[in-house]
Design a protein that fits this description.
Keywords: ATP-binding, Nucleotide-binding. The protein has 637 residues and is of the alpha/beta class. It is built from 20 helices and 27 strands. Helix 2 crosses helix 3.
Length: 637
């Protein structure tokens, strides 16, 4: 375990590695250049970070200035981030998929002075809006051939290639080194480290101010809760570093512990990269795990016969074995033998596709369906779940390595308080800390609130919004509904998502949606019913499964009509809707649905960057087909 200085800052973590954990020449970053994986040492990383620092100091950048990054996960992200942060500047990472309007707003709201750009598409986006960004001085492309792009006639920003920065400042002078060190040591833990813009499911984007202390304490206590992470790990990074989850759970953890970080080439090549890199730890989102689950079930049961029977038998054995281990019982020798056979015949083959070395995966960003977590547990693959928001640095709770409670997001981390507050009366139902943990404790649900070292400094230049989010007693109101179950935090839904039907019954859509997502035919589902007599839903089918079953061409998904009207497809989906409805209370069951050809997306403004549905946007956009569903159901009665 790393010995954390009480006043540690983000730049000090990496310096600690070369002083106390690894020799400077040890590998830190791994990425694919052309066709080969290239390893980059801690020493080289720090040299390139110093080059970035020296360049910007020469240009007059000072402590507190905001510096932008709009780039995919890469070593360049690390060089730039470390370089700006060690001179006290502030990281403002922008989601590459945001619209020009949103990017322009963030640049102007934060007052970004310089921005690192990762590819030609993003570069063209910045060239279009740069003229509207008064405080932006430098545009820094981190790719080749940027000169071939035509600049707007009135373009006045200085363009400097990132390669040129690294080359011209490759050898920093003694004076530059002295200045950089003095600035690094002069950073106060309460200084802002990063602005991360979050709009949630509604409203104007807000810049969340996270301090060095926010990040470092979050990493420190997470490592206490998951003490099996050590300096020998190799993380595979693919979730965007513009999101706080990947930034903390992979990047900062690896900086603290001296782990290797390998960067996946793309989501499409993730499976290939896993086999090549053979990671020991990965951060992921539930949707990835759901896809792995769906493909494994489909492959294991395809065609029926002996292969299918062996697969289903293995899963049953895995469940029995897991249940015994989780109950702290020693499995009988007969069960241990069966589990060994299941491992050899089935489980090992699935694990090989992840590289075969995974200790565990960390799932965050959304709730992991209970059945998916149990599936991986049956295979012997640990999935640790965490919970938090951008405003909480982000982790508030995380699963303990040796104690899994599926359907929950783990134990409260050390050093903070998590409360459950009654939604209507605002009375506190319960407060839990890491130290008050009891494995059988349960309480009623309410809004999840938190106070302690993980809570943000506030929203940048938005004192009213900050006061609304953090009350006078220091509690940050998450807007999530939850409770404590078996000592662990369990998230039910978002407060803003709550549906109140025409009869006054409260329905939280996420648990309902998760029941229907058990169907291998369904990719996404969006439940509707606020102020209505019953629930309906927009269902997005699993494209691969749908195409195979009905032998559909790709042109089927390019139709101008966003909704499927073929009765045989509607009946096919309806079979699973009806079957799974039996698991729900009558008022939670879907009475009618429409099938949307293609998934909701960020590009269409339907999802937030963290892939949460924008309920008001979707309901407004598809108001007509939604109203049709209610009219159809009435006519059917």
């Amino acid at each position: 375990m790393v010995a954390f200085n009480e006043f540690s800052t983000v730049p000090s973590l990496l310096r600690n590695v070369v002083e106390n954990i690894h020799p400077p020449q040890a590998t830190f970053l791994i990425h694919k250049r052309n066709t080969a994986w290239e390893e980059i040492s801690f020493e080289t990383t720090l040299q390139r970070a110093d080059a970035v620092s020296a360049f910007f100091l020469e240009k007059g950048i000072k402590k507190g200035d905001r510096m932008g990054l709009m780039i995919e996960n890469s070593p360049e992200y690390v060089y730039y981030d470390q370089g700006i942060q060690q001179i006290g500047a502030i990281n403002v990472s922008i989601y590459p998929t945001l619209s020009e309007h949103e990017v322009e707003y963030i640049i102007n709201d934060s007052g970004i002075k310089a921005i690192l750009i990762g590819n030609p598409f993003l570069y063209k986006k910045i060239l279009k809006i740069a003229g509207n960004c008064k405080e932006l001085l430098y545009v820094i492309p981190a790719f080749d051939d940027f000169e071939k792009h035509t600049l707007p006639v009135d373009f006045s920003k200085e363009i400097v290639s990132f390669d040129k920065i690294l080359e011209t400042k490759k050898e920093t002078t003694t004076a530059e080194q002295r200045t950089i060190k003095a600035l690094r040591l002069g950073i106060d833990p309460l200084d802002t480290s990063s602005l991360i813009y979050t709009s949630g499911t509604t409203g104007t984007p807000k810049g969340v101010m996270l301090s060095h202390r926010n990040f470092v304490e979050n990493v420190k206590v997470c490592l206490q809760q998951i003490p099996v992470i050590d300096e020998t790990e190799t993380f595979l990074s693919f979730l965007p570093l513009s999101h706080v989850f990947e930034r903390t759970a992979t990047y900062h953890v690896c900086c603290a512990q001296g782990c290797k970080i390998a960067y996946a080439q793309s989501l499409e090549l993730l499976a290939k990269n896993m086999a090549e890199i053979k990671p020991t730890v990965m951060s992921c989102v539930p949707r990835l795990l759901e896809r792995i689950h769906d493909k494994a079930i489909k492959s294991g049961t395809a065609g029926g016969g002996v292969k299918s029977k062996i697969f289903l038998w293995a899963l049953e054995v895995g469940q029995q074995y897991r249940n015994e281990k989780e109950a702290s019982r020693n499995p009988a020798i007969s069960l241990r033998i069966k589990q060994s056979i299941a491992e050899k015949l089935v489980f090992s083959k699935i694990k090989e596709k992840t590289g075969g070395r995974l200790k565990f995966m960390i799932s965050g960003g959304a709730a992991l369906p209970k059945n998916v977590g149990e599936f991986f547990g049956n295979l012997g693959i640990r999935i640790l779940e965490g919970f938090g928001l951008t405003e909480t640095s982000p982790v508030m709770s995380v699963t303990e390595y040796d104690r899994q409670v599926y359907g929950t997001v783990g134990r409260v981390i050390p050093g903070i308080e998590v409360g459950i507050q009654d939604i209507e009366t605002k009375q506190m139902i319960n407060i839990q800390t890491h130290d008050t943990f009891q494995e059988n404790f349960e309480c009623n649900e309410g809004e999840v609130i938190v106070r302690g070292h993980c809570v943000m400094k506030g929203y940048f230049n938005k004192p009213a919004e900050t006061a609304e989010a953090i009350d006078k007693d220091g509690w940050f109101h998450t807007g999530d509904i939850g409770r404590f179950y078996k000592g662990n935090l369990q998230i039910t839904d978002r407060l803003k998502n709550m549906i109140v039907n025409a009869y006054g019954k409260n329905v939280y859509p996420t648990p309902v949606e998760n029941i229907y997502l058990k169907s291998l035919k369904i990719e996404q589902i969006f439940v509707i019913g606020d102020k209505r007599e019953y629930l309906t839903a927009i269902v997005i089918p699993n494209r691969e499964t749908l195409q195979e079953h009905f032998n559909l061409p790709d042109s089927f998904f390019a139709s101008e009509n966003p909704f499927v009207e073929e009765k045989d497809i509607i009946q096919w989906i309806g079979q699973d809707i009806k079957r799974l409805s039996a698991e729900l209370a009558k008022f939670e069951r879907i009475k009618n649905f429409k099938i949307k050809r293609n998934p909701f997306s960020m590009e269409d403004g339907e999802l937030t960057p963290s892939m949460k549905a924008k309920r008001k946007v979707i309901e407004k956009k598809y108001a007509e087909p939604i109203n049709e569903m209610y009219q159809e159901a009435v006519e059917a009665d």
